[in-house]
Amino acid sequence: MHDDPNLPVLTPDHPETETFTDAAAAVARLESLYLEATTFLARNFNEVIRSGKPAARIRAFYPEIRLSTVTFAKTDSRLSFGHVTGPGVYSTTVTRPDLFRQYLVQQIGLLIQNHGVAVSIGPSATPIPVHFALAGNPGVSVPQEGVLEFSLRDVFDVPDLATTNDDIVNGTRRFHPDGSMPLAPFTAQRVDYSLARLAHYTATDPSHFQNHVLFTNYQFYVEEFESYARQVLADPASGYTAFVATGNQILTTPDGVLTPVTKMPQMPTYHLKRADGQGITLVNIGVGPSNAKTATDHIAVLRPHAWLMVGHCAGLRNSQSLGDFVLAHAYLREDHVLDDDLPVWVPIPALAEIQIALEDAVEEVTQLEGYELKRIMRTGTVATIDNRNWELRDHSGPVQRLSQSRAIALDMESATIAANGFRFRVPYGTLLCVSDKPLHGELKLPGMASEFYKTQVARHLQIGIRAMERLRDTPLERIHSRKLRSFEETAFL
Predict the structure, then answer these.
(1) Where would a tag sit more exposed on the chain, N or C end, judged by fewer CB atoms within 10 A?
(2) CB 89 within 8 A of CB 181
(3) Domain containing 235: what range?
(4) Which residues share a beta bridge with 88?
(5) pLDDT tens, 31-90?
(6) What CA–CA distance (Å, rounded) separates 490 from 493?
(7) Are residues 188 and 210 in the same domain?
(8) What separation in angstroms does the CA of 304 have from each of 8, 21, 165?
(9) Shared domain check, 238 and 183
């Protein structure tokens, strides 16, 4: 913040900080504070647009949660979250408590239960950028710089990328500027930034995202997903309540009509919803590690319970056939987009709960098991590379490394998604379908797909859906295990 010292600052009435031992009441207070702050900014913004530059700077603040504890006493060690690591003051700013209500009630409730102390709810010292305050208001749009007769940042706070970063999840920030320690993996402004990006990239509102996310790199899966959604919407016992498509089009009946979109977003996204948020979201991220990083960077703030890659890959073994499945149990990272945030020496482990759910889903859908399952599925290392035409390089380079790593498949997204899952503490997994075998003369060319391959692609999405449904029934403490938690971890998932 760089304020004019001669300009007064107009803020809402500063409410008192309150303490709570009831999580639902604490979240209700967060919602009240956030609504008061954003309403204040919206009202004054409209007045500024109507009347011109005011004689005061307009500012409102994010609400925050604070917890203080003075003991080293251990909490229930079976749980990897819901508690702080030692005595001290912990805090986090909060945005959109209406969107995160269920998550906040759960996380705050665990803090109160595990530490036996109240949490404090009040305004923070972090201003809300006017762009984020008005993001959910369809009747108001913030003009670009230069449209108004004065600079918007002279009157309102605007997004500040210097303070919107991943220091907490990257493990490089131990203390906030006020000396408190992080309580949650993301600050409010970082969350707001990603919510805005998600709406832009996916053309669906963040409120539609479900707790289980499938990523793909092939449009065919979208068509299969819509077909499956229509089937389950016809069955009231399925628990699914709606299907949301590009442009926030909502189907609640199997015969609903979707209007074709004239301009598709960069990452078309579709949501098969349940009332408890435990449905499935499918994101077509397209091709490449940059897209994979972008999507997961932003979806991570929604704190999903799992994300899986179900895309196409190159099979690297002559014994594989088009349409075979590959279950990743290790990753060779040559995508490079995360090297600065997560060095390549950091191992990305396979997560047992995810692996079991995927293998069980393959058995269920294909009706094969044990040794017979090896006919169509291999488990091994998946290599992710940032060069789509890697085959044209000198084979003493990438091909030799692929052989030395024991890789059985190669793509351009899986290791990125897994590595960002590790970085953001989101359980991850990969099940790919072999679409070509470039080292063995089977290139991805028109007309080469066999009937077996086409059948397997149709099954592939079903397997991803079945795996997610199995994970949905897995207790949260088993999914979010210590394998994804560091020495000094935030209390919030």
Answers:
(1) N
(2) yes
(3) 204-477
(4) 69
(5) 999 999 999 999 998 888 888 888 889 999 999 999 999 877 666 667 788 888 889 999
(6) 7
(7) no
(8) 42, 26, 19
(9) no
